C-alpha cells in the first residue's frame, strides 16, 4: 500500500464524504420513522463510523510520524476537532433550541430558563464528553425525542484515539516498536470476544469497537509497505466482510480487518482520485442531527423518507460549507502559529509549531 499512497492524489476525501452521507441517511431514516434497520447489531451509520475510525487511525498515525513532535501533533488535533465542535454546540444551544421551542408552541426563552438549560448544554458538553443531550425538555414528540445532537458522542472517543497515538509516538513506539500497535489491537479484539461471551472486561463495548477500528487503521499505515493492494484481494476482503455481516451479530469479530482493506483499496488504488478542495465531511457529521431534528418537528416529518433525508442533507451541506469556510479552514490556517515574546527589543520565537505536510481529516489539506 505504501507505494500506492499519494498524499495529494487519493480518494480519502471522497470516502469520508460518502461515510458522512451514509450517517445522514441512517439517522435521517430513524429520525423520520423511529425505526432503525440493522444487520445483526449494526446499522448503516455504525458501518460508516467504523470506517471513519479506520481511516482516522491510518491518517492520524501518518500525521504524527510526519510531524515527529508531540506538541505540534496535539496542536494540530485540537485545531481540527475543537473549533467547529464548539461553534456547533453554541449554535445548537442559541439558535436550534429556541427555534425548536417555537416549533413546539413554547416561547424561545424557555430554552434558556427551563432545565436543563441551553446554557448548561454548552458548558456541560464543551469538553467533548457529551453528558447532556436534552435542552429544556424540547422535542418530546419527535421520533427520536429530546436528543439535540446524537452524533457528537463519537468525538470523545476520537480524541481518546488521538491521545493514544500521541503517547505511543512520545515514547517512540510508533518508530521503534511498531509491533506494539497490532498487539494492542489484538488484545482489545480478544477483550471483544470475551465481552461477546458475556464476560465483563471493564471497557465499554463502544470504546472497544471504535478503538479497535482505529488501531487497525494505524497498523495499516505502520505496515503499509507490506500490504499488497490487488484486485483479487479486495474481492476476497469484500466477500469476507459480507459473510461477517450476514453471519454474526457483531460483524467486527471477523470483519473489521476486511473492512479496513476494502476502504484502503478504494482510497489508494482506483485509477482516478477524488481530492476535494472543500472538506465537508466533518460539518455534515456534526450538524446533520440538529437539522433533521428541527425538520422532524415540522410537517416534513410526514413526507416520504427520501424527501425528508434529502431536505436535511441539503440544509446540512450548506451549514457544512459555512463551517468549512468560516471555522475549520481559518482554524487550520493557524497550524504553523508560533507564539513570540519581545526579547532584547526584538520579537523572537520561543516555541515552534511549524507546519507539516498535511494529512488527516482531509488527507490532502486539513490535517
Describe the structure.
- It comes from uncultured Friedmanniella sp.
- This is Acyltransferase 3 domain-containing protein.
- Residues 10-321 form the Acyltransferase domain.
- Keywords: Membrane, Transmembrane, Transmembrane helix.
- With 367 residues, the chain is mainly alpha-helical.
- The chain has one domain.
- Helices cover 62% and strands 3% of the residues.
- Strands 1-2 form a two-stranded antiparallel ribbon. A two-stranded antiparallel ribbon has the order 3-4.
- The radius of gyration is 21 Å and the shape is globular.
- It starts with 11 loop residues before the first helix and ends in an 18-residue tail after the last strand.
- The relative contact order is 0.18.
What topology does this entry show?
Blueprint: H1 12-33, E1 38-39, E2 42-43, H2 44-67, H3 70-103, H4 110-113, H5 118-125, H6 153-170, H7 173-176, H8 180-196, H9 205-222, H10 231-247, H11 252-268, H12 281-296, H13 305-332, E3 340-343, E4 346-349
Antiparallel strand pairs: 1-2, 3-4
Structure at a glance:
This protein has helices at residues 12-33, 44-67, 70-103, 110-113, 118-125, 153-170, 173-176, 180-196, 205-222, 231-247, 252-268, 281-296, 305-332, and strands at residues 38-39, 42-43, 340-343, 346-349. With 367 residues, the chain is mainly alpha-helical. Helix 3 runs antiparallel to helix 6 and helix 8 packs antiparallel against helix 9.
Amino acid at each position: 500500500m505504501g507505494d500506492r499512497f499519494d498524499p495529494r492524489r487519493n480518494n480519502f476525501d471522497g470516502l469520508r464524504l460518502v461515510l458522512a452521507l451514509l450517517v445522514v441517511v441512517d439517522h435521517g431514516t430513524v429520525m423520520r420513522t423511529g425505526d432503525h434497520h440493522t444487520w445483526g447489531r449494526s446499522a448503516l451509520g455504525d458501518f460508516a463510523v467504523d470506517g471513519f475510525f479506520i481511516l482516522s487511525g491510518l491518517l492520524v498515525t501518518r500525521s504524527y510520524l510526519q510531524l515527529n513532535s508531540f506538541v505540534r501533533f496535539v496542536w494540530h488535533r485540537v485545531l481540527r476537532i475543537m473549533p467547529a465542535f464548539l461553534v456547533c454546540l453554541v449554535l445548537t444551544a442559541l439558535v436550534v433550541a429556541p427555534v425548536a421551542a417555537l416549533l413546539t408552541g413554547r416561547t424561545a426563552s424557555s430554552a434558556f430558563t427551563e432545565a436543563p438549560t441551553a446554557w448548561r448544554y454548552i458548558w456541560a458538553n464543551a469538553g467533548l464528553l457529551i453528558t447532556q443531550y436534552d435542552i429544556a425538555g424540547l422535542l418530546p414528540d419527535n421520533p427520536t425525542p429530546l436528543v439535540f445532537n446524537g452524533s457528537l458522542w463519537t468525538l470523545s472517543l476520537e480524541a481518546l484515539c488521538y491521545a493514544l497515538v500521541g503517547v505511543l509516538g512520545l515514547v517512540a513506539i510508533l518508530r521503534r516498536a511498531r509491533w506494539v500497535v497490532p498487539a494492542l489491537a489484538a488484545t482489545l479484539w480478544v477483550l471483544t470476544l470475551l465481552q461477546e461471551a458475556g464476560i465483563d472486561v471493564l471497557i465499554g463495548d463502544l470504546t472497544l469497537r471504535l478503538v479497535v477500528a482505529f488501531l487497525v487503521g494505524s497498523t495499516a499505515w505502520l505496515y503499509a509497505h507490506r500490504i499488497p493492494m490487488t484486485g483479487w484481494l479486495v474481492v476476497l476482503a469484500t466477500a469476507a466482510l459480507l459473510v461477517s455481516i450476514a453471519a454474526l451479530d457483531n460483524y467486527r469479530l471477523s470483519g473489521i480487518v476486511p473492512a479496513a482493506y476494502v476502504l484502503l483499496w478504494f482510497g489508494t488504488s482506483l485509477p482516478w482520485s477524488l481530492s476535494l478542495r472543500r472538506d465537508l465531511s466533518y460539518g455534515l457529521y456534526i450538524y446533520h442531527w440538529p437539522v433533521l431534528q428541527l425538520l422532524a418537528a415540522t410537517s416534513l416529518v410526514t413526507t416520504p423518507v427520501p424527501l425528508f433525508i434529502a431536505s436535511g442533507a441539503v440544509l446540512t451541506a450548506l451549514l457544512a460549507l459555512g463551517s468549512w469556510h468560516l471555522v475549520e479552514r481559518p482554524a487550520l490556517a493557524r497550524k504553523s502559529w508560533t507564539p513570540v515574546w519581545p526579547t532584547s527589543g526584538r520579537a523572537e520565537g520561543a516555541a515552534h509549531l511549524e507546519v507539516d505536510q498535511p494529512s488527516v481529516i482531509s488527507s490532502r489539506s486539513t490535517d
